[in-house]
Structure formats: C-alpha cells, structure tokens
Write a structure and sequence with these properties.
Layout (H helix, E strand, L loop, with lengths): L2 H15 L39 E6 L7 H6 L1 H7 L2 E6 L3 H11 L5 E4 L2 H10 L9 H10 L2 H6 L1 E2 L2 E2 L1 E8 L2 E4 L1 H7 L7 H15 L5 E3 L11 H14 L2 H8 L8 H14 L14 H4 L8 H4 L3 E5 L21 E4 L10 E10 L4 H10 L2 H9 L21 H10 L6 E3 L7 H17 L4 H10 L3
Parallel strand pairs: 1-2, 1-3, 8-9, 11-12
Antiparallel strand pairs: 3-11, 4-5, 6-11, 7-9, 7-10
Length: 459
C-alpha cells in the first residue's frame, strides 16, 4: 500500500498550490466565488432526492489534513444547505491506524475515505459487522457515471461497499513543450515512437550531457514506489489487463515470463546509461534522488527531456512554472504498444459507510454524484484534484493537467487499472516490491533475481 507516498503527494499539492478556497453554490453559480454566502443562488433540485435531513449529522474521517482538507469541507456545503444536514469532518495523519482502532472499539465514523482497496478488504474481513454495503443511491451513481473497474475496486468478494471520491492518473510523461518545439520533437503515440524519440535526443544532445530521461525513486521509508509504478504501467501495456489482474492475486507470479518481459522494457529506459539520469547522475543516482526532485532538471538545467510521473507531480514544479500545453512543462499520455492500446494506471480514494442511517446513505450517494464532483472541483480553485466521474465538467478544473486527467478518466470504455502494489499484500506491495526495485536500480541487481526475491516474499 502506498499510503505514505499518497499523503506526501497531498502535502506536495498543498505546498505547491497554496490552496485558497472558494465555496461552491449548489447550482455552481460563479457569482459566489470568493464569498462565504453560497445559499442565495442555490439550486437544490438535484438534492430533493435526499429528502429533508434537518438536524441530522454525518461524520467523515479521512487522511486529508489541514490545509488541504478545506476543499473537502467546502465541497459539502451544497449538500448541507440543500438538505439541512451537518457534515462533521475530521482528518488525521494517523488515519489508517486510528480507523482500525475505532473499528475495534466499536465507534467508527459514519463515512471514511479509504485510500487503498487493500485496506478496504482488510476492514471487510476483520470488521464485517461494522462496514455496510454501499447505499442504493451510491450504486446507481457508480453504475451510471464511472468506468466499470472503479466499482470492482470498491468491492470485496462481490459486494460493493465504497465509491471513488478522488482519482489520479499515473500514466503520464512530463516534458517541456518549449524544448520539444525548439527541437522539432513530436509527442510519441506508441512505445516504439517513445524509444525512437529517446534515441534522437541522445543523438542531438548527448554530447552536451543532456539525457532523454530523468527519474527519482527516493521517498524515505517508502523509497522504491515510483519504480513499481513504472513496472505496473508496463505490465498493462505488454501483458494486458487480464494478466495484470492475475498478477495482483499471485495467480501470475512475479517471476513469470510476462512480468519479466515488462521489467525488461522498463530497464530499456531506467537502466540505460545513455538515457538516464539527465542532470542528476548515472543510473544509480535514480535511487538517491527523491521523487519530488526527479523531474526538476527539465526546467532547472535543461539536461533532461522526459520524466514519467503521476498527475499529482504538477505541484512539484518550482513556483512560477507555467504548467500548460504550451508552457514550461506539461504531460503526455505514456504510450502503449500501439496507438489503439491506451490503458490507464491510476489511484484514488473510496468512501465507505459504517452506518445505514438514511442521512449517511444519502451523503455517500452524494459523494458519487456529478453534483459533488463539480462542487469539489470548484472548491479547489488552485487545482490538484480530479474525479473519474464522467459528468465532471472540465471547465470547473482550473489546472490543464487536471483537465487532461479528467478527459482520460472520464472515458468509461477505457482499460483502467488501480495501482497494483496498493492491491497486493502489504509484505509485497509496501515491502519487497519497493525494496527490490530499489536494489534493481541502486545495486544493479538482475531482473531475474529481483523478481525471484519479490515472489519469494509473497505471504
């Protein structure tokens, strides 16, 4: 599970974006932007389905803490104003541990944001009498507005419990549009085109010390997770979604030839001294470089041209960086083997209920609705958040990278897969997978030895 790096990503977004909040009216009237008065022009028609909830309180518990919790709190205003309910929000840096403590004590919150499907599975297995299946309204909204895979990630043993409340796209390559334009480089649409572009950059700029790629997998106790994302993205591309699903459950082993093929392709980039690590060092420097610093040479030194990292990396660029299609940096889709092969690797959080009271069922359904997704977008005017709800209006997202993410996530026909290590047993997903991928980079451990070691650690 990657709760460690996900919390750090939230912190990076807060620090990089300097979040200032705008309360969202029920009807999304922009005249209220910057004002605390959101009720005067509220259109509550979409909320009539929830009934009159005056005097009712719903408690919400998440890992999202101040100051990045404010957009969450503000996004609930339309529901409160239109139903009369009160939403009591609490965030904690010790969320994962404390949620289990509360469940053990029999005093859970009404709603909790679960950051990994693996944790949801643990809760269902260990506290089956505490968690309740998703409300009818939640089921309806998920079936209507989300790609099918999302429902599966919020389900355990065929029972649907939790709908997604946020999402991120990991299948991105960051680059400098200006540098590409100056050199006549085009966005690659296939894996072969990506490798050809890398070779062209070596030919054009290798003598200057520039490299096609820069990377960093350092993350304190969670060092190695960015390298696992590389492999996960590549398994989706070379082996496909079905094999990916079997890999997560260990029906396809880590040392299976299909996984080995994917790791070999990752190595074609990350362990190629001609390709990495632009502006930072040799191949081994990837392990010593933090993930926050991994892409910075694109804008600080010009010695790197591409950096594969998730949408949340937008917050890590230096203050004043123009993150846009024609700006200092932007991102393109990490291409598949063919133009038609466009799988998406991503992550997200899920809203699980621990009470079946009507007001709790209604609020859980609201979190799965287009009304909430758009209210949340408007309550995050500095960017850094996106939903996979197909009815999220991209115009409500101010960040171009968030808009691009929403476009990709909103395609309900796509092959979407959740971060594999977040779905694997913790001994692997947050253990050997991280450490062995670090050894692969830092100590040049062989592909086979790395995959054998990870497989040997499977519980």
């Amino acid at each position: 599970m990657k709760s460690v790096h996900r919390r750090r990503a939230y912190a990076a977004v807060a620090a990089g974006a300097g979040l200032s909040m705008v309360l969202a009216a029920c009807g999304g009237n922009d005249d209220n932007a910057g004002s605390d008065n959101t009720t005067s022009s509220a259109d509550c028609a979409a909320y009539e389905q929830y009934g009159d909830l005056s005097g009712k309180t719903v408690t919400v518990y998440t890992s999202i803490v101040s100051p990045e919790d404010q957009p969450q709190i503000d996004s609930y205003k339309p529901f409160e104003e239109c139903t009369g309910a009160t939403i009591s929000y609490e965030g904690s840096k010790e969320f994962e541990a404390q949620l289990l403590v509360r469940l053990e004590a029999g005093s859970p919150p009404d709603i909790a944001y679960i950051p990994q499907p693996g944790l949801l599975k643990t809760i269902v297995e260990d506290y089956p009498d505490q968690i309740v299946p998703a409300s009818e309204g939640t089921v309806t909204n998920i079936d209507k507005y989300y790609a099918e895979a999302w429902k599966g990630y919020g389900s355990v043993d065929g029972t649907f419990y939790a709908g997604p409340v946020g999402a991120n796209v990991k299948s991105f390559v960051w680059y400098s549009p200006k540098a590409f334009a100056e050199n006549g480089y085009e966005i690659p649409k296939t894996w072969d085109e990506l490798i050809a572009l890398s070779d062209q950059i070596v030919a054009d700029h290798g003598a200057e010390g520039a490299k096609p790629w820069c990377a960093g997998i350092g993350s304190g106790d969670a060092t190695g997770w960015p390298a696992t994302d590389w492999l996960e993205d590549m398994v989706l591309r070379t082996a496909g979604g079905d094999v990916y699903d079997q890999w997560i459950t260990n029906d396809v082993k880590f040392n299976d030839p299909q996984i080995a093929e994917a790791l070999g392709k990752v190595g074609d980039i990350l362990k190629n001294p001609d390709y990495v690590n632009g502006g930072l060092g040799d191949v081994s420097s990837i392990a010593a470089t933090t993930f926050q610093d991994g892409g910075l040479p694109i804008v600080t030194s010009g010695l790197c041209y591409m950096h594969r990292q998730a949408s949340f990396y937008a917050a890590n660029w230096p203050e004043g960086t123009d993150v846009s299609e024609n700006g200092d940096v932007f991102a393109f889709y990490f291409p598949g083997l063919t133009e038609d092969d466009r799988p998406i690797l991503g992550g997200g959080e899920f809203a699980a209920a621990f009470s079946d009271r009507p007001e709790v069922a209604a609020f859980q359904a609201f979190l799965a609705s287009p009304e909430w997704s758009n209210a949340k977008a408007k309550a995050t005017p500095a960017g850094g958040w996106v939903s996979s709800n197909s009815e999220l209006d991209p115009a409500n997202l101010v960040s171009p990278i968030d808009q691009l993410s929403a476009e990709l996530l909103g395609d309900t026909t796509q092959t979407f897969r959740f971060d594999a290590s977040d779905l694997m047993p913790a001994a692997v997903g947050a253990g050997s997978f991280w450490t062995e991928m670090t050894n692969w980079i830092a100590n040049d451990k062989s592909d086979q030895d790395v995959l054998d070691a990870i497989q040997a650690s499977w519980p």
